[in-house]
Amino acid sequence: MTADWQEARALAYTAGREAAGPTEVVSLPDADGRTLAEPLRALTDLPAFPTSSIDGWAVRGPQPWQPVGRVLAGGVAAPLERDGTCVEIATGAMVPAGAEMLVRVEESTRDAAGLVSGQPRPRPVPEWRLPGEEAHKDEELMPAGTAVDPAVIGVAATCGYEVLSVRSQPRAGLLVFGDELLTAGPPGAGRVRDSLGPQVPGWLRRSGAVVAPESVSGPVQDTLAAHLTALRGALETNDLVCTTGGTMHGPVDHLHPALAELGAEYLVNTVAVRPGFPMLLARVPGKDGRPRFLAGLPGNPQSAIIALITLVAPLLAGLQGRPAPALAQVEAATDVPGRGDFTHLVLARLDQGARSATPVGHSGSAMLRGLSNAQGFLVIRPGMRATAGDLVPFLHLPLIAGERP
């Protein structure tokens, strides 16, 4: 039965969440691109102590002030116990107890006797950071499911973490089907150049999967026996196997018979979306008791990428315990037609503020030129069309894992 596009995305995500892999502990540098398995909480107040924002003097009482010491970043300041005293202080250093004000070095003078005076300009905030100003001890800073990027690693390091608990990364492979495909040189003489073998692994990595070079294979010979051999091998070493082409029921389309032979269960078998027909997602029992997944992508290149962002990106998000890929809202810069009872995905580029999107053209299911100029797709729901200025859902193409749109 043909699934609604939104329903298909939800089914793929739920299947991934139900099969999410175990957690593991990794060092901070190794956490980049991974997914938090537990909330990231502050281990102490941030800052943990009053911290100077300037180079200058920590003073107590009326001026002039008698210097009684110095405190540098990393040192512990002795308290200022008497009025009329001060300590020299560096940016990042602990503010001593008893200090009433910080005076910038450029707004101070010293007389012949060494006494310090100052004429600080009024400022709306103090010249030091207070404990807990950024976060309080045990405060949740990032929820479980957050994609880890260098900024998250920096926050964790600031808190005092040395390792993070993260989800295991799903392993993905790709099998390219089609005797008509060339792997080198220009197309001609009835044969076309394979464009999916080189690009699909990059989209999978941007969705958080690990793709080993040996997990990309093809073209696989157009026989049922060759398909079964390739699929069994790929499913042994990968959590997800993507295939390209063979999703119909033509004379050399062997994917459906192969899935029957493997005892696969269809989660989605065709989706009411254009371009993108036909696509499928199946669950295959693994020898170790854990399910494997197979995503059948159409052979036409743009349709294949639409199948990938429809079924594979939500599945991989679920497998990593991340939130499902969300739709943004943008203005349609031009009128955009619908496709009757189908969801219409329209390649579009965003303006600089990402407030509106313009269709890029060259959007035939076999074309890739439009894809190379787009940041994602305008989503026109069944029975709908968009008029210039309408707010329309927008689905971003997968970004580098952890990258913010």
UniProtKB/TrEMBL annotation:
Pathway: Cofactor biosynthesis; molybdopterin biosynthesis
Molecular functions per Gene Ontology: metal ion binding; molybdopterin molybdotransferase activity
Chain's role: Catalyzes the insertion of molybdate into adenylated molybdopterin with the concomitant release of AMP.
One Pfam family cited in the UniProt record for this chain: MoeA_N
E.C. number: 2.10.1.1
EC class: transferase
Cofactor(s) the record lists: Mg(2+)
Family recorded in the similarity comment: Belongs to the MoeA family.
Name the record gives this protein: Molybdopterin molybdenumtransferase
UniProt lineage: Bacteria, Bacillati, Actinomycetota, Actinomycetes, Micromonosporales
Record's keyword annotation contains Transferase: yes
Record's GO cellular component terms: cytosol
